[in-house]
Specification:
Layout (H helix, E strand, L loop, with lengths): L7 H12 L3 H14 L4 E7 L5 E6 L6 H7 L25 H7 L2 E7 L6 E7 L2 E2 L3 E3 L4 E7 L6 H4 L5 H18 L4 E6 L2 E6 L6 H13 L1 H5 L1 E8 L2 E8 L4 E2 L5 E5 L2 E3 L2 H10 L9 E2 L1 E6 L5 E2 L10 E2 L2 H18 L6 H11 L43 H8 L10 H10 L26 E6 L3 E6 L2 E6 H18 L5 E11 L2 H9 L1 H6 L3 E4 L4 E8 L7 H15 L9 H11 L10 H12 L14 E5 H7 L4
Parallel strand pairs: 1-8, 13-16
Antiparallel strand pairs: 1-2, 2-7, 3-4, 3-7, 4-5, 4-6, 8-9, 10-11, 11-16, 12-15, 13-14, 17-18, 19-20, 20-21, 21-25, 22-24, 23-24
Length: about 625
């Protein structure tokens, strides 16, 4: 068979197969064009999931008749100021969208430039281009796509149901709306309105939160922490959910590079690393991150749909994301998401009725962790925004003032109780008696009772707090172990009688093969015959723990980690296992002094709002909400 040139219509249909794989892809390309044209309002109407009709109207700069005729030619674009494909400063730049759509549908463009006295329209029917004709339209552009894929019927067979295709269109518009909060959007489909977004006002960070709240829900808006960081010309901004606000999938993780929604493995991995200390492996945080950098430092021309990018300095981007997110989470202190309290109130209401839709229940205020001297925790040199303290945070800051005498470490106060549960801990009242205010004015209040030897009930000036004693202490021990390791190693405590632990031979060999690394974490082990391990020292932070159970759990942890990573690289898993065994257990009776000691230490420890497994450590219920439960309000 001789070699021949393909006709232009067939070439355009092949290109359409790469760029326009479903109606949502056509909508994405056309909406991006509208944004690039400077539109402040974009209206989208679809019928039959976009298969029979897509109409997109904007108030952008518009086009004259000559530009209309040129716009539907392949590789014609106004988005590239030069021939440098690495200098991409717009969303659309390939010049393939309009001719590709026109090759597989009946495409009509109607446009009117600013200041022009009339509009012009042009039609492309299955690749056959007509001539511009006078038309009626206010300023801007209207793109009408009828019978998508009519020229390639086989493609229609691979499309999903109209409702499914419409949902894909909605997701596409929502992502673009997140990145451009100053643009108003509407979406109508099959005679029903599904999206109405007005242009957000205020500075960019607040405008983004308003837009994100409209799209991701009130829960996210009430429980989001701001992120702002910069390093070597790369800036990161956005909002991330508290660790206790998580979901079973990563669907609510939205990542943007230079205003473009992307799916990037590097960024997803950095997010996972930042939340590794707070969430189990099968849960995912809610967030929206916006990365901006010089176009020369990122390649957006990797994929025909422009959904993937490639960074020149991957280490810089990963380090910026991990450091900024960890800093923002540390600033949140012991704050837990309001959804915890709302769920509790919902469960307490008659017939499990939902909380009022108007969100009458006020949100707990953020309680940022502060280093000594009230200086926000700083990291590797990035510039960050800070959480503005409100309510609980103001009171917490007052209690962490430098002139107040600090309480001794919690572990020391509990050490005597752990050794002999019947013994009362030492009296620290003299040390803390420097005109100390009432305990219930502390952020987590004053301990009033212990329920089922598991939950601490504390009274605050505004309501009550219920604390899971094991989950809370587990987080405190974990944070201490991490700090001790960074400062040169975890202090060890020799056992009076070494503990002999029997394991299967593979498990014992795995432990002994990591003996040096375990020693840095405070656990000294040595071989004692086939399948036996002798434990001579344990981390001092763990106190009286079940050594045999700890060693067996660590052996299972090492089996899951494999040999590819060191224990330091998987610090969160190993230290988390140790912290769980060294924490105050559920079912242990605590005195009032011990309960208050735990509450005070939580207030001074970052991330204490959730345990190492992502569960909340406390629930706060406002007095006004409790009164509403009993009809007193």
């Amino acid at each position: 068979m001789p070699i021949r040139m393909l006709p232009d219509t067939l070439v355009n249909r092949i290109a359409a197969g790469e760029v326009i794989e479903r109606p949502a892809a056509a909508v994405k390309e056309l909406v991006e064009n509208a944004i690039d044209a400077g539109a402040t309002r974009i209206d989208v109407v679809v019928r039959d999931g976009g298969k029979s009709l897509i109409t997109i109207t904007d108030d952008g700069c518009g086009m004259g008749p000559d530009e209309l005729a040129l716009a539907v030619e392949r590789h014609a674009t106004s988005k590239l100021p030069s021939d440098d494909l690495l200098d991409i400063r717009s969303l659309g730049f390939r010049g393939e969208a309009l001719p590709s759509i026109g090759a597989v549908s009946r495409l009509t463009l109607t446009s009117r430039p600013r200041g022009a006295d009339s509009a012009w329209a042009l039609t492309v029917d299955a690749g056959l281009k007509g001539a511009p004709q006078p038309a009626a339209l206010a300023q801007g552009t209207r793109v009408e796509v009828r019978d998508l894929f009519a020229a390639v019927p086989a493609r229609l067979k691979f499309l999903k149901a109209a409702r499914t295709e419409f949902d894909h269109i909605g997701d596409c518009i929502e992502r673009l709306a997140m990145a451009h909060p100053g643009v108003a959007f509407t979406l109508d489909g099959d005679n029903r309105s599904t999206l109405r977004l007005s242009a957000a006002q205020g500075d960019l960070l607040d405008a983004r939160l308003t837009r994100l709240g409209a799209l991701m829900g009130r829960d996210f808006q009430d429980n989001a922490v701001p992120v702002q960081a910069a390093r070597e010309g790369v800036t990161l901004a956005g909002w991330i959910g508290l660790p206790t606000l998580h979901r079973p999938t990563a669907r609510h993780q939205h990542l943007f590079v230079n205003g473009r929604p992307v799916r990037d493995k590097l960024m997803v991995g950095a997010v996972r690393a930042a939340y590794a200390d707070f969430l189990p492996r099968d849960r995912h945080p809610m967030l929206a991150l916006f990365l901006d950098l010089d176009p020369q430092e990122v390649d957006v021309n990797v994929h025909p749909a422009k959904a993937e990018v490639r960074f020149r300095d991957q280490g810089l981007v990963r380090g910026l994301i991990v450091g900024a997110l960890k800093h923002a989470l540390a600033e949140a202190g012991h704050r837990a998401s309001t959804t915890v309290g709302l769920a509790t109130l919902g469960a307490m209401r008659p017939e499990n009725s939902e909380v009022d839709a108007d969100g009458a229940i006020p949100s707990p205020s953020p309680l940022p962790y502060r280093s000594p001297g009230h200086q926000p925790v700083q990291s590797w040199g990035g510039s960050y925004g800070s959480v503005v303290p409100r309510g609980l945070a103001d009171r917490a800051t007052a209690f962490q003032a430098p002139h107040q005498a600090p309480l001794p470490p919690l572990q020391g106060r509990l050490a005597g109780w752990q050794a002999a549960p019947s013994a009362r801990p030492p009296d620290y009242s003299a040390q803390a008696a420097t005109a100390a205010p009432p305990l219930d004015s502390h952020p987590l209040g004053a301990a009033r009772a212990q329920v089922h030897n598991t939950y601490i009930v504390a009274q605050t000036t505004e309501g009550i707090v219920i604390v899971d004693q094991h989950a809370a202490h587990e987080r405190l021990v974990y944070e201490r172990m991490k700090t001790a390791l960074l400062e040169g190693g975890v202090k060890r405590q020799a056992l009076l009688i070494p503990e002999l632990v029997e394991l299967d031979e593979p498990s014992a060999n795995r432990l002994l093969g990591r003996a040096a690394e375990l020693a840095e974490l405070g656990l000294a082990v040595e071989g004692f015959g086939p399948g036996c391990v002798l434990v001579r020292e344990v981390p001092a932070l763990l106190g009286q723990s079940d050594v045999k159970s700890l060693v067996r759990d660590l052996a299972e942890e090492l089996a899951e980690l494999g040999d590819a990573l060191s224990l330091k690289e998987r610090l969160e898993s190993v230290c988390g296992t140790m912290a769980c065994h060294g924490s105050v257990r559920a079912g242990r009776s605590l005195s009032v002094e011990e309960m208050n000691a735990l509450l005070r230490q939580m207030e001074a420890t970052p991330h204490s709002g959730q345990c190492n497994h992502g569960r909340p450590t406390y629930v706060e219920l406002k007095l006004s909400d409790i009164e509403r439960l009993f009809g007193r309000r």
